[in-house]
Amino acid sequence: MTAHNKQQNEPGFVLHSYPFRETSLILDVYSRSHGRLPIMARGARRPRSALRGVLMNFQPLLLSWFGKGEVRTLHSAEWQGGQPYLQGKALMCGFYLNELLINLLARDDPHERLYDYYRDTLLRLAHETDHAASLRCFEKNLLQELGYALQLETEVDSGEPLQSQLCYRYAVERGPLADRGQEGLPVLGKTLQDIAADDYTDPYTAKQSKQLMRLLLNHHLGGKLLHTRELIKDLQKL
Fold it and tell me: Is the CB of residue 29 less than 8 Å from the CB of residue 37?
């Protein structure tokens, strides 16, 4: 980094943006080497700004910025291409991923593997129809990168390998328990084995894995409501 704290051609995505003053934007950027950070795009809302058609969600960018305060200043942004535009349900899923990252990733904390996985998940959402499976895989990777990896191979107390036919209770911050106590969410051993293998073809696994991820993410979100999740629920009622 130079004395002016310049960053050149850093791969990144815009997670969220909001207006600032009359013509600018504040971007919540997810960059590969610097993690999440706020960047001001001066004049980006002007009708003739070259940035207007570039600073889009879910599109891979090369970003250059400068500044050493909390909010950096955008110098340039180049569209990289290669990512089809998300539409319909895939678009809603993309906004859900962004909301998870905004709420769970600390600022200026790089997670390069997670960045690559996010990029790959956007491609999956664009090309594949089983969006739920793409989301479950991403949620599992997100929790793992944040240090909250799921316990998917052995029972907590005994250390015994999970049995596919047995029902366990999955306790937050502990893992699967064979004990029939009140703690945790009921979940089949097979479901946990399928999650470990990223295999969501079994409808029962798909249902239970969604419940389990919801439980774990809600715990780490500390009660924050995700707007996209509520919106998807409302759309499903229509």
Answer: yes
- What percent of the chain stands above pLDDT 90? 85
**pTM (predicted TM-score):** 0.92
Determine the topology of domain 7-79 in CATH: OB fold (Dihydrolipoamide Acetyltransferase, E2P) (2.40.50)
CA distance 107 to 95: 19
Query: Looking at the predicted structure, is the pLDDT value of residue 128 above 80?
Result: yes
| Lookup: tokens for 225 | 């409501």
Tokens of 60: 């891979």
Give me the pLDDT at residue 238, please.
54
In the chain, where the domains are located: 7-79, 88-237
Convert the pLDDT of each residue in 84-123 to its tens digit. 999 999 999 999 999 999 999 999 999 999 999 999 999 9
For the domain spanning 88-237, the CATH number is 1.20.1440.120
Q: How far apart are CA 75 and CA 61, in angstroms?
A: 13
- Distances in whole angstroms, Cα of residue 153 to Cα of each of 45, 173, 207: 51, 15, 19
pLDDT at 180 over 90: no
The single-letter code of the amino acid at 190 is K
Cα distances (angstroms) measured from residue 51 to each of 11, 17, 75: 16, 13, 10
Which of 8, 118, 104, 111 has its CA nearest to residue 57? 118
